[in-house]
């Protein structure tokens, strides 16, 4: 039975011999939204994503992707998904056009290869083989192969790692266009600005647990967004957090009788809030986390 | 969904993969030299080195042609598949394919199709060069070609399934050529592809008799050498029946192994 959620996860657990990679994750992704999964290396992002994609089996919990348990996903189910893996090799000797056209042949209702190539901005590279493409261009080819089948749900695993700022901006435009056309997107990323720019909602995962889910604007709660006023006095740099920055500045002006040295008022960015959340999660289960962090990183790396 | 269009058939996707695999093969220089042209180059070298030296009544090119044909079939099936699949697994291509609605069987249809197309092309080229340039007598009796057909099919099929199974042996894609090429080279030497088989030491012939290439080469000698030649075989005959049994056993073992050990992701991916 299909419901309004593209993805529904309850109590997901995945254990590896030396650690619990995913420890009771709940997750709903609504149809048509862009959901960003954030978290440090080894937090369980890739494991969770790969269970949703059908590459790994859950040990416990309930998983439904487009109404189907990924462990029993058939060809019809796969034809409704698009998967862009973190790293993948292309058939190295075929051109962009040959590859996109070939992959179109796997799907019952593919997009037009020429249109997809144009949409990812590889029009001038149609006759080029993948190894002659730049890193950003190869990634766009990955996306072209991921969306050629007209997916209802698209997985993007760290799509812009290694991009220069301009390439990232272009890539964001591409993703925004896909969202406009109604594609549901699950994005994992290390870049907070990327999540802020693209995602309708953000989930932060740390040490195998979903520690918070919210829109980029509400993540961390109201208190996390308290303004920070900083300045320098005889004792060095000072900072305070306040709900009434204007009043604080007025008081400072009186104290300094005019210019306040190095005065700055800042609202915490999503990145500050995220680091705060991760920091809290780490102190909550201290020693245990430190020991298993390296092992977790190597598992995630191996999963590539 | 009632209005869903049908999925493309396994066969049509398999044929599309065959086309892609063949294109990849002929565009990649390394595969082309070490798999496709290797036996042809060696036949040319042997023919030049030994010239008109007498090999029990035939010249060097005639004596070595069947061995090179056998060798080519084995390279185009076993070596080509073992290396390419190991690379594709290690570099994540198989993982990507598994994430699409491509039927797994279509992938194997593509690989087997590639082996058929490349080995037949290789054989035709080898035969043309041997017959037209090196003065090798090409048999014309239909019975010989009937033998050729079943030996070729059994050899290519067993080489293919064994190559698919062996692709899990190299630990990384980079190691694939380094692990697989020496195995194939050793088998070629022991199976008498580069020497007169009957002049090899007995123990080496015994070891070679376990493996398929020896029987493939012997079968090809039965097709391309004069019938009287079989007295020079260690067993005093072509032993086609034994050859058919050994190749069939390898085909079954290979099919079983390939199904058991094949995986779409790397070993370290839980």
Put the structure in a nutshell.
Chain A: This is ABC transporter ATP-binding protein. The complex is a heterodimer of chains A (304) and B (270). Chain A is an alpha/beta fold and 304 residues long.
Could you walk me through the main structural features you see in this protein, from its secondary elements to its overall organization?
The complex is a heterodimer of chains A (304) and B (270). With 304 residues, chain A is of the alpha/beta class. Chain A has 2 domains: 5-80 and 152-220 and 271-302, Rossmann fold (3-Layer(aba) Sandwich); 227-267. Chain A is built from 10 helices and 12 strands. In chain A, strand 10 and strand 11 form a beta hairpin. The longest helix of chain A has 17 residues, at 286-302. Chain B has 270 residues and is mainly alpha-helical. Chain B has one domain. Chain B has 10 helices and no strands. Chain B has helices at residues 10-27, 29-50, 60-90, 93-98, 104-132, 142-166, 176-190, 202-210, 212-224, 240-261. In chain B, helix 3 (60-90) runs antiparallel to helix 5 and helix 3 (60-90) runs parallel beside helix 6 (142-166). Chain B is elongated and about 65 Å long. The two termini of chain B are 33 Å apart. Classes of the chains: A alpha/beta (304), B mainly alpha (270).
**Main beta sheet strand tally, sense and closure of chain B:** none
Count of discrete structural domains of chain A? 2
Low-confidence stretches of chain A: 287-304
Poorly predicted runs of chain B? none
- Rg of chain A over CA atoms, rounded to whole Å, is 22 Å
Question: Roughly what fraction of the amino acids of chain B lie in strands?
Answer: under 5%
- Termini distance of chain A? 32 Å
Query: What is the overall number of helices of chain A?
Result: 10
Cα shape of chain B: elongated
> What would CATH call the homologous superfamily of the largest domain in chain A?
P-loop containing nucleotide triphosphate hydrolases
What is the third-level CATH name, the topology of the largest domain in chain A? Rossmann fold
Helix content of chain A: 25-40%
CATH architecture type of the largest domain in chain A: 3-Layer(aba) Sandwich
What class do helices, strands and sheet pairing of chain A give? alpha/beta
Please report the two chains with the greatest interface, counting residues with C-beta closer than 8 angstroms to the partner's C-beta: A-B, 34 and 31 residues
């Amino acid at each position: 039975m299909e419901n309004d959620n593209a993805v529904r996860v309850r109590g997901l657990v995945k254990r590896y011999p030396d650690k619990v990679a995913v420890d009771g994750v709940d997750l709903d992704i609504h149809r048509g939204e862009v959901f960003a999964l954030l978290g440090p290396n080894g937090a369980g992002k890739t494991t969770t994503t790969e269970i949703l994609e059908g590459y790994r089996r859950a040990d416990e919990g309930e998983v439904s992707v487009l109404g189907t348990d990924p462990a029993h996903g058939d060809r019809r189910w796969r034809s409704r998904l698009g998967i862009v893996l973190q790293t993948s090799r292309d058939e190295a000797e075929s051109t962009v056009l040959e590859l996109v056209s070939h992959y179109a042949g796997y799907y019952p209702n593919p997009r037009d290869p020429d249109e997809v190539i144009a949409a990812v901005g590889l029009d001038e590279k149609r006759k080029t083989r993948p190894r002659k493409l730049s890193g950003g261009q190869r990634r766009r080819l990955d996306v072209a192969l991921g969306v050629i089948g007209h997916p209802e749900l698209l997985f993007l695993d760290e799509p812009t790692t290694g991009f220069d700022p301009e390439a990232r901006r272009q890539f964001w435009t591409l993703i925004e266009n896909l969202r406009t056309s109604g594609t549901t997107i699950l994005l994992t990323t290390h870049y907070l600005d990327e999540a802020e720019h693209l995602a309708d909602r953000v989930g932060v995962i740390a040490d195998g647990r979903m520690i918070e889910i919210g829109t980029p604007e509400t993540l961390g709660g109201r208190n996390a967004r308290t303004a920070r006023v900083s300045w320098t006095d005889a004792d060095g740099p000072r900072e305070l957090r306040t709900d009434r920055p204007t009043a604080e500045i007025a008081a400072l002006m009186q104290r300094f009788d005019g210019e306040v040295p190095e005065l700055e008022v800042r609202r915490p960015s999503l990145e500050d809030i995220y680091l705060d959340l991760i920091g809290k999660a780490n102190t909550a289960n201290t020693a245990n986390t430190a020991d298993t962090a390296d092992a977790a990183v190597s598992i995630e790396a191996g999963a590539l | 969904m009632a209005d869903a269009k049908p999925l493309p058939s396994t066969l049509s996707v398999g044929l599309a993969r065959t086309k892609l695999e063949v294109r990849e093969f002929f565009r990649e220089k390394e595969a082309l030299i070490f798999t496709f042209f290797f036996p042809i180059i060696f036949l040319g070298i042997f023919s030049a080195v030994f010239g008109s030296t007498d090999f029990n009544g035939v010249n060097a090119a005639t004596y070595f042609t069947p061995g090179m044909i056998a060798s080519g079939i084995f390279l185009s099936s076993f070596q080509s598949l073992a290396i390419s699949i190991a690379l594709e697994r290690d570099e994540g291509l198989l993982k990507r394919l598994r994430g699409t609605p491509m039927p797994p069987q279509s992938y194997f249809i593509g690989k087997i199709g590639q082996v058929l197309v490349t080995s037949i092309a290789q054989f035709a080229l080898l035969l043309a060069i041997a017959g037209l340039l090196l003065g090798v007598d090409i048999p014309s009796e239909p019975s010989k070609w009937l033998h050729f057909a079943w030996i070729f099919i059994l050899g290519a099929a067993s080489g293919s399934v064994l190559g698919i199974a062996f692709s899990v042996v190299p630990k990384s894609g980079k190691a694939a050529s380094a692990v697989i090429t020496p195995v194939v080279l050793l088998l070629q030497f022991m199976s008498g592809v580069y020497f007169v088989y009957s002049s090899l030491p007995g123990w080496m012939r015994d070891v070679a008799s376990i493996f398929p290439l020896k029987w493939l080469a012997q079968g090809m000698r039965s097709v391309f050498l004069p019938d009287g030649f079989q007295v020079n075989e260690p067993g005093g005959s072509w032993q086609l029946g034994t050859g058919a049994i050994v190749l069939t056993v390898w085909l079954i073992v290979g099919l079983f192994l390939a199904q058991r050990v094949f995986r779409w992701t790397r070993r370290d991916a839980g």
